[in-house]
Amino acid sequence: MSSNLKGICLILVTLALFVSMDSVAKHLVQSYPPIQVIWARYLSQTVVSFVLLSPVLYRVLKTKNFKLQLVRSALLFTATICFFTSLKTLKLAEVNAIFMVSPIFVTILSVLVLKETVGYRRWLGVAFGLIGALLIIGPGTGVFSYIVILPIISALGYAGFVISTRYLSQDESPLTSFVYTALLGSIAASVLVVPSWTPIDSSDLFVFSVFGLLGAAGHFLLIHAYRASEASFLAPFNYIGIIYGSLWGFYFFDEVPSLITVLGGLIIVSSGVYIWLREQKNK
Fold it and tell me: Tens of pLDDT along 16-37?
């Protein structure tokens, strides 16, 4: 299997795991504060990581890039808070469609952070992608609320997380990045959850205990995907998440995406694929 094909397979499985985790989270945030659901997601990943890696944990925790690991974890933690909070109100397909502006943000951050050169055609693709997101969130309409901004903030945080993951993957063990993501997020969530803690119903204990493992498996595969292939090559395959989100939303929550959501999603996907094609041509 070529490295690019391996990266594609890994990213497709990763997205399925992430959307499955989001579906469970959407169910839980209807009864519990989002920060408590996030706490369970990170803590379960941390516990399992420490148990499985206990024989080599002292080596895994060694890093020359602690500050970047801290920033990377903070970006993902912020993205998770915004994403899970939006699930309480918005449809799963809507959240996933808006979140798909993240590859567009990767292009923007590649200019600001990595100092890459981007031509006007790719900037045009970025502009159209943002128009697609604005179409879905509907500013200026009666249905607009601040909640729809959260998936965009989540997408921006995730884009920063992707760029830092790609940077760290060159000289950092995937296990090191994996453990630090879980550990630092778990510490932050444990502090923030205290004021809004809600007793967990006995019927939800098992779900709280294990649903974070979906995210853990997803992030572990994500790290390997970006080790196998370049972020710019894998970017368009992230749009499969919209399909997963629509299917999962329909199956579990009887959600049917609106025509506006479908139209906005198509614009976002088209602009993202266009940006990717320009990147491949420039290479």
Answer: 998 898 899 998 999 999 999 9
List of residues 6+ apart from 257 with CB closer than 8 A = 91, 93, 94, 97, 246, 249, 265
Give the integer Cα–Cα distance in Å for 243 and 1. 26
pLDDT of residue 282: 62
* Domain carrying residue 135: 3-282
DSSP state of 113: T
Contact indicator for 168, 68 with CB cutoff of 8 Å: yes
Query: Domain total for the chain?
Result: 1
Query: How far is Cα 181 from Cα 227, in angstroms, rounded to an integer?
Result: 17
DSSP 200: P
For residue 258, count other CB atoms closer than 10 A to its CB. 14
Q: Return the pLDDT at 143.
A: 46
As to burial, measured by CB atoms within 10 angstroms (0-12 exposed, 13-18 middle, 19+ buried), residue 49 is buried
Residues of the chain with pLDDT under 50: 141-143
Token pair of 50, please? 């420490």
Angle between helices 102-112 and 120-137 (to 10 degrees): 140
Burial class (CB in 10 A: 0-12, 13-18, 19+), 213: middle
